């Protein structure tokens, strides 16, 4: 039996690891806690001793040495119900988890409600309860951007920051390009009265996708006044579709800035006796599962959320580790995914 397997034996101590490895206690501590000034030979000896003795480092003691918590936060300034129902956030978690698989770092989910919740979150982040933060679905009036831009806490935004795109690293899909390509597709298949259900205009994605819609219509010489605002939810998309039909009853194509809004619009069109795609062609944005499950299935724009959040986490880990990284944003493309609705 090894020492570790003997019943009743105490947990191995740092001193025993040092003795087994033939190094000083301070060298063993630095080797275990990722400190500097440890030779490759000493590091290997300590690693072998840890395995042989079954030593488990004390995380609290390690934090005192490294000043790290071994955790990062996913910060979402949205209501609980949206975080739990929107597939965007599930895919974001999937990408972050993939990046953390081979690390000891834990992921902390912070749902920062947009009333006083963002202030509590700001205090939490300022006090460095985590080693870094990934922020998604942020709004123009969030305090998070200002707090993080002025803090020493490593952070990465998924989505273009409003005020500090030069100082905050971020990952995003090319939303202007996506909105333009979606609208160009509707024009190419014969639509001439193209409306849009825009996302919230206090979010960069909402503004940029609307800008892409306008660019495509201007290039085609078509009017761009058929606009209704949504909120990236199905109910918001339904209300916006009702408005479009009321104000622009001759609309023959609609670009909805998210698939959830497009799904809500689809129900309203059906209720008004408008066949899709025969009477109105409809295209969404995201392709995160909702688009393939509607009737008819939605033509949409791809949004590589899993890959974007994975890259965001990798950039954040580089920041936390003090590794040099390019400050240039990582921008992903968006492609048309053709299905029956257009």
From TrEMBL:
<protein>
    <submittedName>
        <fullName>LacI family DNA-binding transcriptional regulator</fullName>
    </submittedName>
</protein>
<dbReference type="InterPro" id="IPR028082">
    <property type="entry name" value="Peripla_BP_I"/>
</dbReference>
<dbReference type="InterPro" id="IPR046335">
    <property type="entry name" value="LacI/GalR-like_sensor"/>
</dbReference>
<keyword id="KW-0805">Transcription regulation</keyword>
<dbReference type="GO" id="GO:0000976">
    <property type="term" value="F:transcription cis-regulatory region binding"/>
</dbReference>
<dbReference type="Pfam" id="PF13377">
    <property type="entry name" value="Peripla_BP_3"/>
</dbReference>
<dbReference type="InterPro" id="IPR010982">
    <property type="entry name" value="Lambda_DNA-bd_dom_sf"/>
</dbReference>
<feature type="domain" description="HTH lacI-type">
    <location>
        <begin position="12"/>
        <end position="66"/>
    </location>
</feature>
<dbReference type="GO" id="GO:0003700">
    <property type="term" value="F:DNA-binding transcription factor activity"/>
</dbReference>
<feature type="region of interest" description="Disordered">
    <location>
        <begin position="1"/>
        <end position="26"/>
    </location>
</feature>
<keyword id="KW-0804">Transcription</keyword>
<dbReference type="Pfam" id="PF00356">
    <property type="entry name" value="LacI"/>
</dbReference>
<keyword id="KW-0238">DNA-binding</keyword>
<dbReference type="InterPro" id="IPR000843">
    <property type="entry name" value="HTH_LacI"/>
</dbReference>
């Amino acid at each position: 039996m090894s020492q570790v397997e003997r019943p009743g034996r105490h947990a191995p101590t740092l001193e025993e690891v040092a003795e087994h490895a033939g190094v000083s206690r301070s060298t063993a501590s630095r080797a275990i806690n990722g400190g500097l000034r440890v030779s490759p030979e000493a590091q290997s000896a300590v690693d072998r001793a840890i395995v042989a003795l079954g030593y488990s480092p004390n995380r609290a003691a390690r934090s005192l040495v490294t000043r790290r918590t071994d955790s990062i936060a996913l910060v979402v300034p949205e209501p609980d119900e949206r975080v739990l129902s929107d597939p965007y956030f599930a895919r974001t978690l999937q990408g972050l988890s993939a990046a953390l698989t081979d690390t000891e770092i834990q992921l902390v989910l912070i749902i920062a409600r947009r009333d006083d919740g963002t202030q509590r979150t700001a205090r939490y982040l300022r006090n460095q309860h985590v080693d870094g933060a990934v922020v998604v679905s942020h709004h123009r009036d969030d305090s998070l951007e200002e707090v993080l831009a002025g803090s020493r806490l490593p952070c990465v935004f998924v989505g273009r920051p409003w005020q500090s795109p030069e100082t905050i690293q971020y990952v995003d899909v090319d939303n202007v390009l996506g909105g333009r390509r979606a609208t160009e597709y509707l024009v190419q298949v014969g639509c001439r009265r193209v409306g849009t259900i825009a996302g919230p205009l206090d979010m960069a994605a909402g503004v940029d996708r609307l800008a892409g819609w306008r660019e495509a219509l201007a290039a085609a010489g078509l009017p761009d006044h058929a606009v209704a605002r949504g909120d990236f939810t199905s109910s918001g998309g339904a209300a916006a579709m009702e408005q479009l039909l009321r104000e622009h009853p001759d609309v023959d194509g609609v670009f909805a800035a998210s698939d959830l809004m497009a799904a809500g619009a689809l129900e309203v069109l059906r209720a008004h006796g408008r066949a899709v795609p025969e009477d109105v062609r409809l295209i969404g944005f995201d392709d995160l599962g909702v688009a393939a499950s509607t009737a008819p299935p939605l033509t949409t724009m791809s949004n590589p959320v899993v890959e974007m959040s994975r890259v965001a986490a990798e950039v954040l880990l580089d920041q936390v580790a003090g590794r040099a990284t390019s400050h240039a944003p990582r921008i992903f493309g968006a492609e048309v995914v053709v299905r029956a609705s257009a």
